[in-house]
Every structure is written in structure tokens, then in C-alpha cells.
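Async update (no meeting this week)

Hi team, since we skipped the sync, here's where things stand on the single-chain job. The sequence we agreed to prioritize is pasted below, unchanged from the tracker. I ran it this morning and attached the output directly underneath so nobody has to dig for it. Comments welcome in thread, and please keep replies under the output.
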Amino acid sequence: MKPRILISSTAVLMLLVSCAKTGKVELGEQVNPVGPTGKPLVRTSNGDAGIPVTPGGNANQPQTPGKIAITPEEETVYTDMDNPEAEIPELSDVLDSAPKRQGPWEMSETIAKQRAIHEGKPLLIWFTDSKTSPMCKALSQELFNREDFAAWANEKLVRLKVDSNFGENDYVNAPDIDLREKESRRAVSKNYVASLKKRYKILGAPNLLLLNPSGEVIGRYRGYKRGESDYTWGLIRQGEASCAAAYDSWKSGLVKKGYREWSDRKGRKVFAKLTGYSNGTLTLIQPDGTRCKTQESRLSEADQEWIAGQKKLRGL
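Output:
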């Protein structure tokens, strides 16, 4: 039996939660970025054709004028499956806890993936050996240290750096730890790098992966040659464009079903749908099932105007 969410009966907007299915692709030789189907296409370094990124579909759900439909039971999701009766957090707390960018390259996979989901951006993972690999150093100098690449990547990507030279990272070399703690952290870092390499089947360095916001690998970039920074950047651009197109299609499908961007008084935003409204208190649910609540007065003026319009439409 699937769990239920208790939803206020005063006013409810309906939406089926859906997700775009993004095909896996490999990246490599220079080719026309648009395949025969008209969809963005990338290819492998050995010349094999990649798979076009195909946005998923969201069928429109018929609605009866003047009638408010409750989200179907089979589409409801708990924020905490282990404790479905847990109190719904405040929207301000959810926004406050949103992962913040730690630097140009994240060091934690957990934080990087959280940011990718929250920001709706692809995740670029850079497997490198900054100590012993000449090509890793070349890739860093010729592309990743360029100001134009950094500006583009800050806008378009979330970036994660996984360095086999784990002994030099800030976590291991924190100034306020003793030698025993330093060795402990070195072991943790070593296991962390090894586990990621095993999970993503990484052999050698440099090695780049591009993941869509849901965590699916959609592109692999193996190796690097000096002087090919623009070519490598072109491949990353191509993969990002394919992923962005699929994400936009998925998001627009959810918008048609009631999802929208909500803003608080500080201008912070969350993409969610309204599932309950009672005496000025709203219950929102994000596409991943995370729920939160907030007071109407804490929302932006535009959101308050939207709510007023919905209430007028329903004679409330």
C-alpha cells in the first residue's frame, strides 16, 4: 500500500510528478552537434555514434472548470519515508539549507550533486592527478584556469574535482588538526577517491564526466592533448546544451501541470507546486518529493498576487 499525504481541502492545485529521460552519450571527435533526427548529438572518441538526448514527455492532465482536483494517491511522495508524519519544514529553513557553492570546484560529491539538483545544472566531474600527470596540468593551465571558461562554467555547470593527489587538499592539511587526525583524513580521502573511480569506472587521468541533474552520466571525455583546449571546451558545451534542452523540456512539462517558481522576500526561489492552502498557510512540494510550508505574507508580491488570482478564480 502506498503512503498518503494529508492535504488541506480549502484549495489544491494538481500535478503529476514526472521526469525527463535523458539518453547516455559519449563525447569525442569533432562532428556536427545536430544528428539526423534534429536532436543534439555527441559522439565517442573512437567514432561510434552517440545517442541523441531525448526529452521526456508530460501529457496534459484534463481539468474540470471550477473543480479542484487532489493529487492522485499514487503520485504523492513523502519528504521523509521513514517518518511520514514528520512535521513539514518551513520554506525559509529549506532555502537556508540549500547547498552553497564552496569554490570554483566542489570537493564533496554529496554537495556537488545537491547543488546540481537544486540549481538544475549538469555536473562536470574532473578526475585528475595534479601531482604526477603532465596532461592533467596542461588541461588545468590551458582550459580550466581560463577566465572565459570559468565565467561560462559558473553560469552553466556545477563542477566537482576528484584529485588522486589527496594528500594536498585542504581537508587533509587543515591547520588545526594533529598528525593522527591528518593521517586519518588522508585515509578517508584515499578511500573516497578510490570509491568514486570504481563507481564511475575511471582508468587514468585526466578523465571528465558530465552528469545530468538526476545523476545520470551523459558524457565521458577521456584524456587531453596540448593545444586542444577549445576543442575540449566545445565538447563540454555540446553536452551541456543537450542536457539543458532535456531539462528545460522536463521543467516546462511540469509548469503545464502546476509547478512554478516561488520566491520569498529575499528573492530566493524554489520550483514547486501548491498542494495545500489554509488560512494563509501554503504547503508546497518539489519535484523530488520534498515538502515545505510557508505563510502567504512571507512570499514575494508576485506570488501573493498569483494566490489572490487563484482564490478569485475559485470563488474563495
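Quick observations from my side:
DSSP finds seven helices and eight strands in the chain.
The longest strand covers residues 269-278.
Reply here if anything looks off.
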